[in-house]
């Protein structure tokens, strides 16, 4: 956090800084904050009146009201508040926090009020807050710790990060300790009905309910896309998939595993007595104001029930084409493809490569012309305003093909098909394109050129493929280097030799920091290649060529291969050479 040069704000980075600093205390009343803001001229009187009215109507703190209404520059808000109230700014990421200090504030208080204990100073507890005028939080902290509290100001983002790193794990450990030996009363030697009753009873008790919530909540805050609970002979192991990589979290004992799995099945609306067949379900929660959808899959294994929870953050919403990170020349090629009023546009790649996100971005773009769009999906991941979406139900015979037959009579202009996985679905998609519809769908192929040969291998006539397919995009996801710890990197000699790179060229990597959980990566970026089907390619497709022949002509006509696009991202410091190697196609 940067402090405006015009402000004389003491900045503390350690307990030693505290020893040298005698600082004041937070505003003792809202009136003092109002007076401070008025006299300083930071907020216009009219705007302050609006903020006060908003504060009373919504039950928020005054500073939260000011933030919500946008009447104070939020970029320097912590420093502004610190300067005007005589409270030091703390660079809390640089503090070494003692375990005893962490235990000074109850976990639930830290999570609810988003505060973090830093140190003890002169017998007082020093606590980092983002809003020192939140008197409810200040009073709760003071009451909870039973001693005087000294406040320092820090950005909410930094506080949240330390809470994630320390308190959420601590909360899980405390809950496991609370469950303790009681869980061991569940014995498989009991009759099956009695044993199941014991597990269900335990699954609905508060410690287990809170433990499952804590595991899910921490996954959300760590940006995990999936939670894996894998059964072993000695209990279960919990993994989070973060930026595409599996990250081990903890080991669960056998006596704890059964109630946790049972609790998840209850949340997802599953049959807790069924342990022989796979089950699917869903649930939802709100974490830090974000609506999160949970897709749950439970499959029986030899060692027990395996659980995977897909975490979908609904607050992210749809993104636009410009947010996909496509290179400028490829973007122009994609825009030309999307100017077609009919034809088939395909997005290819392995599972988890972001195909649905790309198609949703395409729909977002095409909605500007107000067409009638119907989607057929399995499952419907995000609800799109202005689009009619269909969830297929194969168990009752309502398949992609069956749904497509009906929607072609429902006057659509454009159709999204979740996946063209068989001849029947692909044939109907071809017919829809031939009758003037724009069709969008996905295929599981390694590169763009292979999509053509895959359709032909399904049994579709080459002349139909050549006359309907207007564009193909193959894509992968690469991990982004964390911006906060990015550093120059020469890259390994093996990778340089593999890609034929000169020795003096500079690349980058992440050193690892608190903001990326010491991984060096934060988030993922899409990298792809786009084939625009030209007249020359159409003529070639009718001859049923191999994928390599199609690829060679596409490159000659301007397609930038995926690996070359990935290398360009590595040169720009977006990703690493290791990530480029992981998604190479040639």
Quickly describe the structure.
With 586 residues, this protein is α/β, with parallel strands linked by helices.
Question: Please, could you describe this protein's structure?
Answer:
- The protein folds into three domains: 11-153, GMP Synthetase, Chain A, domain 3; 186-315, 2-Layer Sandwich (Beta-Lactamase); 321-476 and 527-559, Rossmann fold, CATH 3.40.50.300.
- It has 23 helices and 20 strands.
- The protein is of the alpha/beta class and 586 residues long.
- The strands form five sheets. The protein has a seven-stranded mixed β-sheet with strand order 14-13-15-16-12-17-20, sandwiched between helices. A six-stranded antiparallel β-sheet has the order 8-7-6-11-10-9, covered by helices on one side. Strands 3-4-5 form a three-stranded mixed β-sheet.
- The model is unreliable at 1-9, 21-28 and 183-188 (pLDDT under 50).
- 40% of the residues lie in helices and 23% in strands.
- It is globular.
């Amino acid at each position: 956090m940067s402090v405006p040069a015009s402000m004389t704000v003491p900045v503390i980075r350690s307990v030693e800084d505290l020893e040298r600093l005698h600082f004041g205390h937070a505003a003792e009343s809202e009136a003092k904050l109002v007076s401070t803001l008025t006299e300083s001229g930071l907020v216009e009187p009219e705007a302050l009146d609006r903020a006060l009215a908003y504060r009373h109507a919504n039950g928020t703190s005054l500073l939260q009201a000011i933030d919500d209404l946008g009447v104070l520059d939020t970029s320097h808000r912590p420093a502004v508040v610190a300067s005007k109230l005589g409270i030091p700014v703390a660079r809390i990421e640089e503090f070494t926090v003692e375990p005893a200090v962490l235990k000074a504030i109850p976990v639930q208080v830290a999570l609810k009020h988003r505060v973090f204990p830093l140190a003890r100073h002169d017998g007082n507890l020093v606590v980092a807050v983002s809003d020192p005028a939140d008197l409810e939080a200040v009073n709760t902290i003071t009451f909870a710790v039973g001693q005087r509290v000294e406040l320092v100001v820090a950005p909410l983002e930094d506080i949240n990060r330390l809470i994630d790193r320390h308190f959420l794990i601590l909360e899980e450990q405390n809950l496991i300790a609370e469950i303790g030996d009681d869980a061991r009363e569940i014995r498989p030697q009991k009759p099956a009905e009695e044993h199941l009753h014991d597990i269900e009873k335990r699954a609905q008790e508060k410690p287990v309910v809170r433990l499952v919530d804590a595991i899910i909540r921490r996954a959300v805050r760590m940006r995990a896309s999936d939670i894996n609970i894998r059964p072993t002979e000695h209990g279960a192991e919990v993994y989070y998939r973060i930026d595409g990589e599996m990250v081990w979290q903890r080991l669960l004992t056998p006596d704890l595993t059964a109630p946790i799995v049972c609790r998840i099945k209850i949340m997802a609306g599953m049959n807790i007595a069924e342990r022989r067949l796979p089950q699917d379900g869903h649930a939802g929660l709100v974490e830090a104001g974000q609506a999160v959808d949970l897709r749950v899959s439970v499959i029986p294994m030899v060692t027990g029930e395996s659980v995977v929870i897909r975490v979908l953050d609904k607050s992210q919403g749809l993104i636009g084409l410009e947010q996909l990170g496509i290179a400028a020349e490829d973007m122009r090629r994609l825009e030309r493809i999307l100017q077609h009023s009919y034809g088939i546009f395909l997005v290819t790649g392995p599972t988890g490569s972001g195909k649905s996100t790309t198609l949703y971005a395409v729909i977002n773009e095409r909605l500007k012309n107000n067409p009638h769009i119907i989607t057929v999906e399995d499952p419907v991941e995000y609800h799109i305003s202005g689009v009619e979406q269909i969830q297929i139900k194969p168990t009752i015979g309502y398949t992609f093909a069956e749904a497509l037959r009906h929607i072609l009579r429902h006057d659509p202009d454009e159709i999204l098909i979740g996946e063209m996985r068989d001849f029947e679905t692909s044939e109907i998609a071809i017919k829809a394109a031939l009758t003037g519809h724009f069709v969008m769908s996905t295929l599981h192929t390694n590169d763009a050129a292979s999509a053509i040969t895959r359709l032909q291998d399904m049994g579709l006539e080459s002349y139909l493929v050549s006359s309907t397919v207007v564009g193909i995009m193959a894509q992968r996801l690469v991990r982004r280097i964390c911006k906060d710890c990015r550093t120059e990197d020469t890259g390994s000699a093996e990778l340089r030799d593999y890609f034929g790179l000169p020795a003096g060229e500079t690349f980058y990597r992440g050193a690892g920091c608190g903001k990326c959980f010491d991984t060096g990566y934060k988030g993922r970026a899409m990298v792809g290649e786009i084939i625009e089907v030209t007249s020359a390619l159409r003529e070639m497709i009718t001859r049923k060529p191999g994928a390599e022949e199609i690829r060679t002509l596409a490159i000659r006509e301007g397609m930038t291969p995926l690996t070359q696009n990935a290398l360009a991202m590595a040169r720009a410091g977006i990703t690493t050479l290791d990530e480029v190697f992981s998604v190479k196609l040639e």
